Structure formats: C-alpha cells, structure tokens
Amino acid sequence: VPIPLAAVVAISAFQDFQRRYAFVRNDAKHALACDTARFGLFALALCISFLLQRSFRSANYVFWLLSAANLFGVLYSISRTRLLATHSRLRRYVIRRHFHFSAWMTGQAVLQYITTNAQFFFVGGVLSIGAVGALRAAMNLANLVNVLLLALENSVPVQMAYIARFEGSAGINRLVRQLF
C-alpha cells in the first residue's frame, strides 16, 4: 500500500496546485473542467471495474485508479494552461519562487490525508467493510457544509492577496468583517 498511497498523495497535491492556480488566474471554469475530468474518470473506472467484477478489496487497486484519475486531471490542466514564462531563466526563477512558497504543501497533503482517512483503516479492522462505507456515507451527508468551505478556501485567499497588495491591512480588515 505505501507506493500507491504515495502516488495518490503526490499527484493529488499537484492536481490541487493546478486547481488553485486556475482560481488565482480567475479561471474557475478551468478548475471545474479539471475536477470533472479527474472525478469523472475515477467514477467511470470504478463503474467499469464493478461491471467487470474486479475486486475492490484491494486498496492498491483503488489507489492506482485514483492516481491515474488524478494524473489525467493534471495532464488535462497542463494541456489547457498557457505558459507564463517562456524564457528559461525566468521560468527557473518562477519555479524556484513557487517551490519556496508551496514546499510545505506536500507535507500538509500527507498529514491531511492521514488524518482524514486513517480512521477508516483502523475502524476497518474492527467493523466490516460495509459498516465503514456506511459510516463514510453518513459523514459525507453531515459535511455538506464542506462545499461552502471549499469555495471559500479557493476564493478568499486570492481576494486577500489582491487586497493586501493594493489596499494593505485596512482592506484585509474590511474583507474579514464582510466575511464574518
């Protein structure tokens, strides 16, 4: 399980970066198209596997399917993204700045994945797979507010960055008062 799990975490982090990059460039349609490609392929692969009666008891199989779907979303995003830096020196500078800014995201993605999903691995040892699935479904229904939080997560930091640059701390204080 460690290799497919590492692939899921790494590719998911890069796909999340591509998605956020689309929001920073005020291109929500691009982010939606990438997410649709990613989740659509994953749902299609699961349906085909179910119809072909493949075993879902193997975590490796599902992790590899998820990795492939994430990779498809990443490649689709890259194919639709206009390169900002065409000069090699400028490109290296931009990549270095982006790496220094977002290097912590890989560790954050691993810890978020572990804290979100580790409970199901432990509970799966005590309960049946069906009970764990029912627990996860109930949690998803209870977390419908998550959609709003994800929308805020994608738009508020971008707005704050623009406001901080052009209006300073007074503008940020105004935005925070508006949000709450």
Radius of gyration using CA atoms only: 19 Å
- Count of separate DSSP helical elements: 8
- Low-confidence parts: none
SSE order, as H and E? HHHHHHHH
- Strand coverage percent: under 5%
Distance between the termini: 42 Å
Class by SSE composition? mainly alpha
Roughly how much helix do the residues carry, as a percent range?
over 70%
The average pLDDT score comes to: 77
Shape: globular
| Strand element count | 0
Largest sheet: none
Question: What descriptive keywords fit this protein?
Answer:
180 residues, single chain, globular, mainly alpha
What do these coordinates show?
The protein is globular and about 55 Å long. The chain has helices at 2-24, 28-51, 59-80, 88-102, 104-124, 129-142, 146-166, 168-179. It is built from 8 helices and no strands. The chain is 84% helix and 0% strand. The chain is mostly helical.
